[in-house]
Design brief:
This protein is mainly beta. The protein is built from five helices and 27 strands. A hairpin with a 2-residue loop joins strand 11 and strand 12. It is globular.
Length: 426
C-alpha cells in the first residue's frame, strides 16, 4: 500500500469509522493547499521530457479511500481524467492522529513525462507542502477584484421581485479609481446616482432611505458603498485569526472549498471566489487581468428576488472627468467604494409584544439604518413590515445595538445597511 505524507485535521460532525466502510464525511476541516506546484524536472533517464503536472484536491476517508476529487490544474482531458480515475481507485494508509485514523483533505500532484518513443509516464503522487490556506481566499478575492483595475465600465440589466411582479431596470458603473467613480441604478419609479470623490460619496435617490431591494441589488453585485451582505472584496475582514477551518462542499453543482461559518468558498479549478446561497453566480469572464461573473442572482427559498445580467464589462482608457459630476441637490458624506463593514458588538433582544403573541404574528422585520462613525444605528426606516407591534419592538431594540464602525482606510465612516430582526414563536 502506498504511503503518503498527508496534512491532517479533525472532522466536525459525524466522523467516519472503520465500520462505515470508508464513507466520506459531509464536512471536513483543516489546511487545504491548492497552489500549483512548480515543476522540478529531474529526468531519471536520458531523453525524458517534462510534459506537465496534474493537480487534484482529494478528500480521504479514515480508511484511506479517496472519496472526493476535483481537478485544480491539468494537462489535457484524457490524462486528467485517467489521473482522476486512477486516484479514485487508490487506497492510501489513513491519516492518524493520536493513533486514531481521521478523515483528511490533501492536494495530490502527479508529474508526467514523455519518453523518446512518445510514451507518456507519470511519477508517483506527491503531496503539496503546507502553507497558509487563508491567503488563497484573499488571492481568489484579488483575482475577482475589478476595482484594482485603473479604469473600466460596466453595463447590466437588472430584474427584481416587486410585490410579486418582475420589475426591470439598468445599472451603469464607471470607474477611474477610488477617487473618481459613478454608479447609476434605475427602475420605473426609482433612480439612484452615486458619485465617488476623494474620501467622499455624493448621493441622489428618489427615496430618503435605502430600499430593501436596492440593498439586495448591491449585495448581489458583490460591491457597494454601503454595508451590503455578500461582498466579494472583504471575505476575511475579521482577520485571519477568526477563520479557523474549511470544508469541501458541492455548491450549485461545483466542488468547492468553503470557509466554515461564512458564506464564501473558493473554486480550486479557477482560483476564484464562489458564494453560497442566497447568491448564485455564473459565467465568469475575463476583465483585463481580473474576471467577474456575467450572471448574478439572489434566490430565497427557490424564489428569484434579484437577477443581474452583465451586458458589457471592459477595461477602458481613462474616462472623461465630465462623467463624474455630482448631480444637483446631491447629498455628500465621507465614504468610499467597498468600505470594511461595521461589526456588531452588542445587541438588545427585542421584546415580543403580548398582542402579537396572542395573534400568532411572526416574521422578519427589515429596517434601513445608518450606522454612524460612532457605531450607533440611526435614521431608521422599516422597509419590510410584519405588524405595527413587531415593527416598533424591532426599532426600539435596534436603537440600542452598538457596532464597531465601518472604515474607509483608517477613517471611521457612516454607512447605510439593512438590519433584520426575526420574530418567531417556534
Amino acid at each position: 500500500m502506498l504511503r503518503l505524507k498527508l496534512l491532517f485535521f479533525l472532522a466536525v460532525g459525524t466522523m467516519c469509522t472503520a465500520s462505515d466502510k470508508g464513507l466520506c464525511p459531509p464536512r471536513l476541516t483543516g489546511d487545504i493547499p491548492f497552489e500549483k506546484k512548480a515543476a522540478q524536472p529531474n529526468p531519471s533517464m536520458p531523453g525524458k521530457q517534462y510534459l506537465g503536472t496534474v493537480s487534484l484536491l482529494t478528500q480521504l476517508s479514515d480508511t484511506g479511500r479517496v472519496c472526493f476529487i476535483v481537478s485544480i490544474d491539468g494537462i489535457n482531458k484524457d490524462i486528467d481524467k485517467k489521473t482522476e480515475q486512477a486516484s479514485q481507485q487508490r487506497r492510501f494508509d489513513p491519516v492518524r492522529r493520536d493513533g486514531r485514523p481521521v478523515p483528511a483533505l490533501a492536494t495530490v500532484y502527479v508529474d508526467y513525462w514523455t519518453l523518446p518513443g512518445g510514451q507518456v509516464i507519470g511519477d508517483p503522487p506527491q503531496i503539496a507542502s503546507e502553507f497558509d490556506w487563508a491567503d488563497q481566499f484573499l488571492q481568489a478575492g484579488s483575482n475577482m477584484n475589478i476595482f484594482e483595475l485603473p479604469s473600466f465600465q460596466m453595463h447590466a440589466q437588472l430584474q427584481i421581485e416587486n410585490n410579486g411582479e418582475p420589475l426591470r431596470g439598468t445599472l451603469l458603473l464607471l470607474w477611474n479609481g477610488p477617487d473618481q467613480w459613478r454608479e447609476d441604478i434605475s427602475f420605473p419609479g426609482y433612480s439612484e446616482t452615486q458619485i465617488g470623490g476623494k474620501d467622499t460619496v455624493f448621493l441622489k435617490r428618489t427615496t430618503d432611505f435605502l430600499p430593501l431591494r436596492i440593498q439586495q441589488v448591491h449585495g448581489t453585485l458583490g460591491f457597494s458603498s454601503s454595508a451590503s451582505y455578500g461582498s466579494f472584496f472583504h471575505p476575511l475582514t475579521d482577520s485571519k485569526a477568526t477563520v479557523t477551518d474549511v470544508h469541501a462542499e458541492k455548491v450549485n453543482d461545483k466542488d468547492l472549498v468553503c470557509l466554515n461559518g461564512k458564506n464564501l468558498c473558493v473554486d480550486p479549478s479557477t482560483h476564484s471566489l464562489a458564494r453560497q446561497l442566497p447568491f448564485v453566480d455564473s459565467n465568469n469572464s475575463p476583465v483585463g487581468a481580473k474576471f467577474f461573473p456575467g450572471h448574478l442572482s439572489w434566490v430565497d427559498h427557490g424564489k428569484m428576488l434579484v437577477e443581474i445580467n452583465v451586458t458589457d464589462l471592459k477595461v477602458t482608457d481613462r474616462l472623461p472627468a465630465s462623467s463624474f459630476q455630482a448631480p444637483p441637490d446631491a447629498t455628500s458624506r465621507p465614504g468610499c467604494m467597498n468600505p470594511i463593514p461595521p461589526r456588531l458588538l452588542s445587541r438588545v433582544v427585542p421584546k415580543y409584544p403580548n398582542d402579537e403573541r396572542r395573534s400568532n404574528a411572526q416574521g422578519n422585520v427589515a429596517i434601513s439604518a445608518v450606522i454612524s462613525k460612532e457605531g450607533i444605528p440611526g435614521d431608521l426606516h422599516v422597509v419590510s413590515s410584519v405588524s405595527p407591534g413587531l415593527d416598533g419592538s424591532a426599532m426600539d431594540a435596534l436603537r440600542q445595538w452598538r457596532y464597531q464602525p465601518a472604515t474607509c482606510g483608517s477613517a471611521s465612516v457612516d454607512v447605510e445597511m439593512i438590519l433584520t430582526v426575526i420574530f418567531s414563536l417556534q
